[in-house]
Specification:
Blueprint (H helix, E strand, L loop, with lengths): L3 E7 L5 H11 L3 E5 L28 H13 L18 E5 L15 E6 L2 H9 L11 H16 L7 E5 L4 H25 L1
Helix pairs in contact: 1-5
The protein binds adenosine-5'-triphosphate (ATP) and magnesium ion (MG).
Amino acid sequence: MRTFVIGIGGVTNGGKTTLAKNLQKHLPNCSIISQDDFFKPESEIETDKNGFLQYDVLEALNMEQMMSAISCWMESPGHSVGSTDGRSAEEIPILIIEGFLLFNYKPLDTLWNRSYFLTIPYEECKRRRSTRVYEPPDPPGYFDGHVWPMYLKHRREMEDITWEVVYLDGTKPEEDLFSQVYEDITKQLEKQKCLQVTA
Ligand SMILES: Nc1ncnc2c1ncn2[C@@H]1O[C@H](COP(=O)(O)OP(=O)(O)OP(=O)(O)O)[C@@H](O)[C@H]1O
Ligand SMILES: [Mg+2]
């Protein structure tokens, strides 16, 4: 069955979940899988020499479980939890996968029909993060001692990516980001339709 898989990666508090939810509201037959739902329990998270829990690394995530959720969706696209319940059954099923460590995880590389990456500057990221309460809450110094350095490391790893990633300025208003990405997805879907007609 035809499907269209969208990756929304990016820095913590870049607006990934917000953008994914806004897109889902306007795209027919669209499901979301959030990487944040696949964190291992705290007891399985490593600690560094400063006592910081190492949450912002792939090892903190149960990626096998996330891959199973994706495979499950692929086997029966458009029927999984979180779908806009088949508003238009004839529309190509769309899956949005959103998370902070998507494009560093090799098994996902061949999946993307379109990849987006939200960035915001250090100060804005630190400010937004300080307004959130995570479970467990960020201890003092966690942003500078773990979160941001890990983000920089992952950005460096992304330099090896061979496919196109559309970088998005996460400081733009929510509505502008939505419009920009929605228009782009619409274009990409049209392109895919044309390719299928000529094939
Ligand atoms: N375009 C935007 N402009 C300003 N603030 C935004 C924008 N998008 C999201 N926010 C705010 O930034 C915070 C983080 O948003 P969101 O949860 O969507 O980000 P995220 O990238 O999914 O974060 P996380 O790393 O926790 O998964 C929220 O308080 C949200 O209201
Ligand atoms: Mg999120």
